[in-house]
Each structure stands twice: as C-alpha cells, then as structure tokens.
Amino acid sequence: PPSLPLSPSSREIMIYTSVFLGLLAASDALNVAALRTPSGLSRAKLSMQVAAEAEVAQPVALAKAADEARGLAIDAISKAHSGHMGLPLGCAEIGAVLFGQELSYNPDDTAWINRDRFVLSAGHGSMFLYSWLHMAGYDLPKEEVMNFRAKDSKTPGHPEFGWTPGVESTTGPLGQGIGNGVGMAAAAKHAAATLNTADHTIIDHHVVVLCGDGCLQEGVANEAIAFAGHEKLDNLILMYDSNGVTLDKMADHTQSEDVNMRFEAQGWEVLEVDGHDMDAVTKAYRYAKESDNGKPTLIVCKTIIGKGIDEIAGTCAAHGEAGVKYQDSARESLGLPEEKFYVSPETYDFFAEHKKELVSKYDEWQKTFGEWKAANPEKAKQLEDAVSGNTPDVMSMMPEFAAGKAVATRNAGAEVIQPIAQSMPFYLSGSADLHGSNKNYLKGVGDFSKNNYAGRNFYYGIREHAMGAILNGIGFYGLHRASGSTFLVFSGYMMGAVRVAALSHLPISYIWTHDSIGVGEDGPTHQPVEVVAGLRAMPNLDVMRPGDAEETAAAYAHSIARKTGPTALILSRQDLPIIDTCSAADKRAGTLKGAYVAKKEEGDLEGIIIGVGSELSMGVEAAAELGKGWRVVSMPCVELFEAQPADYQESVLPKAMKAKTVAVEAGVTAAWYKYADKVLGVDSFGLSAPGNQVYEAKGMTAANLVKLAKAQ
Predict the structure, then answer these.
(1) Residue 334 annotated as binding?
(2) Which residues bind substrate per the record (predicted)?
C-alpha cells in the first residue's frame, strides 16, 4: 500500500504477512477458478466472483452418500468379478453434487423434455451412474445393482440407452459421449429457439457430460469440442475427471498437451477444481450454469482414481477390477458396515426429500407448460408430434419423375428432401462441408449457427466422426429427426458413431453420395468399392442403394417412417436412367419391401438378374438382350427384403432359380452369392478416369453381364 513505511518494523511485517497468508489461504480454499481463461479473467478475480455467491451449505448426507456410492461400486464389481472401479470411486463427490443437489430431473418422468441431460462419456465407469440412479429414486432397484453385468440385468457393462431408466445415451466407445453431449446441447438450442416465446420459456435446461483422459484423447472428442466452441453452446458443461491415469500407463506417458489451453483456444470457458471438494465443485458448476459469456464450460476436476482403496488409489491398477481383493478392507476404511450393497436409511431419506424438491420444480414447469400450450396450439401440436415420433405421409408429398429421363440419385434426393423439411419442423439436416455435392440442403429453413439456433441446416465442417456422434446426440435428445451427409467413401470416418446409432435404435439418416466407381476422375481414393458390403454387415442398419429417382423417393420415405434404427441412403454422382419397365407406384412400393420384380419375364422364367443401385439399368439392358424369359429384380435394400415374409421372398427370387440367377453391383462380390450363382462386380480398387471408362476397365458392362449369364 502507498502508506507502507519505507522501513517497516518487524511487527508491521508480521501483520502484513499474516494478512497476505490469510487471503492466500482463503483463495486456495475456494479452489474454483480457471488457471487461465480466454477472456482474461484471472484466477483471483474469478475466485472473488464465485465467493460473492451465497455460501453453499454441503449437507453431511452428500458426503455419506458419496462413500456409500463407492461401496455399491466396490460390491457390484466384486460380485461380478468384472468392471471398472476407478471412475466410480474417484468421482463419487462429483456424483453426489450432481444427483444430490444440482441436476434438474424427475425420476418418475424420465422423458421430461426440460430435464438436465447427464451423459457418462467414460461409459466403462457405469457403476458410477447406476449407483446414483438407484439412490436418486429412478426405477433401478438394488437387486439390479447387485446383478451388475449379469445376463438381462438393467445394469449392463456399459450404459445402454432405452434399457436402463435414466441412461441418456449409449456410451463405452470413448469420446462418443462428448459428441453426444454436443448434439444434445445443439438440439436443445434449436428446441428453445423454436418453442420458447416471449411469455413462456419451456426449454432452458443444461447438458452435463462426465469424461476422462481416454475420451479427450479420441479424435472424435476434439472434433466435437471445436464445433461446440464455435457455435457457442453455452448450455453444455463438460466435467473432466482429470486423474492423470490411463489403462496401460500414467497419462503423461502418452499425452503432454495443456488440455486447459486446448479448450480455451477452441472457445471454451475453463475452470479447475479439486474434484473431491464438493463445495468447490458446486461453486464451479453454478458459475458455469449461470455464466452469460456465451461459451460452453470445461470443469477440470482433479481427482484420485480409485479413491477409497488405498492399495491401488492413484495408479493404473485402479482402472479395472484390481481392487476386488481389497473389498473388505476398503469398505471398513470407508466406514461401511459388513452388509454388502449397503445404503443407509439416512441417504435414502435425503434423496426422498430431494426428490420432493425436484418434483415441486417439475410441477411449476408443468404449470408454465400448460399455459404455453394454451397460448401456442400450433407449436404444441408440432411438439406433440415430435415427442411421440409421429411423421407425415411424406411419400404422397414427393414429386414424380418422368420415365426416359436420366437423373443422378443425389439430385433426386435434393428434390424429395424438401417436402420432408417443409412438413416436419423438427427435421434437421447437415453436411461435413459437402452440401454442394451431397445435394441435401433444406431450402427456406435457415442455417443452424450461433447467430440462428432456429436454423435447420448444420455445417459440421470437415468433421465426419463428430457429425456422426452429434447426430446420435440429437437422436438421443428425443425431439428431432436428423440426417447428415458426406461422400460414401468417408463414411468410414464416422463408423464408430454409426454402430452406436444402430445399437441404440436411433432413427438417424445418413446421406452418403458418390456411391461407386462411377465417381470417376477422383480415382480409387474416392471410389468405395468395399464400403456398401461392409455397411450391410452391420446389424440394424438399413442400407438403401436406389437404382433411379423413383426408388430414391421411396428410400427417403423409408428413412422417415423407420423408428427402430438408422438408415443409410447410398446415392450416385452420375445420372441414372429412370427405369420404365414397371410403374412408378410399383417401384416405390417395391423399394419399401427391399426388392421387387422391376421387369417381369414373359412366358417361362429362364433366368434372373439382380440389379442393384447404379447397376439396375445395366441389368435391364442385359435382360433385354438375353430374351423375354429373363426377369430383372431390383434389390435396393437387402435388410428390408430379408424382413419380408418367406412367400414374398420366394415370389421375387425363387430358390429353385438360384443357379440361373446373376447379380450385378459395382462393388465387392462375396455377399451376393447368397442369392446368385454368378456375380458381376468389382473386387479390386478402382482407377482415375472418367466414370464410363472406369466401368469399362473393370468389366462392368451390359455386354459382360450377358456373357456371364450365358456362361455354363
């Protein structure tokens, strides 16, 4: 201070020193500020802001619940002889703060649209989630916790959406949950912009994701983090279990970047706390939730992995089930009784009282929601349809395409997607920087961005994997139907997310164009000869490769009508003739069954050509040369065809005719031998040349198909 004497006495030095040390201790006790923030907010300044809030009274019950959650995890994993103890023990205080105090939810209405969403991105720590869901009053009785990882239990090894009450997304593949959280946050922003009015706010919740070092090392996480920061998704809070440990080694063996600076550089607010200090975690969470800086927030929670089992805490061994042999001593050190799977009456009582508080807030929201519905009947009907999954008859709205024309199926898609967008206000589309090539831009509905959350065209940048995970998050959110696009050859970048969508029965649509060697000049790097066959091998993914514009219309209609899983729309770059050997109505109806007779034989059936996608017209041309007794079957979707009754399948592809059946598709051939005795396809990579020349170089011509059909 200016008044400080130039030569202070020893007593004055002691006084100033004491004051300084006291302030320093108070600052350290807060332990809730970012080490650095992009806005220039210093640690001291942020600490003072947080300290100015009302003092947080941490109930003793939360500390007790945290240790009992540890006990549940130890007992469940010990009984199963399988699982991951590290996160459930290391993040127990975080769980207590979230489920016992900060999250807004109603265990009796798990579909409440304005609930906070909690995603456990580090899904291997599933006992963390199951313990807190059980204690918080969800329909997850202790018997299910005791049956952790057992057959048919509600507590599987990794969280599964739609199986366990309170689980918001299927996680386990690391990093996916971060992308899911970003998708949920984006969906919430769109829902709020679409539904909220000046008089009534019905969407204002947050999305909270708990992740670890493994999640952040995955590339999908970095892609999603960049998207969230760029679009200023300030309703997203990412809690980072920063324990410095990965499975093989300590984390510093494989990473040395400054995670805080990485997030700051991508537009995030960054806070850092002691993850075992519930007061600090609470203050950081409230700061993140109430901040109006327009940024998503990362809360770095410094934790000790496996805390509670002294023999392994803070080591790589704590990650898995190595702590099982210390079950009894650990439980004793935590102050738990001998009874396994113990939760005290005090903890159950605490959460019962907390549930009353949550339900009271829920009831207040319901009152606002009722007023909103009365004042906004059109929006209310749109929301009702979105929540229930009601979809219009989009097929009847789609344009018809004149026979004799040639239209690339991606261009046909550009037309048929418009009535979908106009009739479904919660239909979202997007592209990984390829709207101009994929032809899936929705007209007249605006672009989703930090400047317009009501927009419905998403620009993901060149981030296919994040696009897939974000699409899943939008699907998990429960209001929207979402689609995303890129070149088919780049679908491999997003396959981890596609697999989760199929496993989770999400009605996502993928628009993958440039479907074959017909891509031409871009060469073998962009000619996906093996990709479609790989996609067809994935369970619960309907792969639709339409052969002309009319089949494309039906394929899009199916992607909307389907509610039990994702649909892949595989579309051509090159123009394809519109087949005129059967009516447009028959083609559309047949496409919805996966396969149909596109050209019926005259007289006795002499042979069958199965034509698929871009090669359907080649099959029709070859059949005309082979004679009137040849049938052409179009099979745009193997999965749909195999779901048809046996008599329908037999009517299209008689088993007795397999020896006289030839399949043609410009891709690898192996899977087609299930239906055909001979296959014309491409079992090697392509080459760079105009598309028609590539087809000729690879032997994909009507003449060669005729020759193969005639061969003995």
Answers:
(1) no
(2) 84, 319, 410, 437, 514, 522, 526, 573
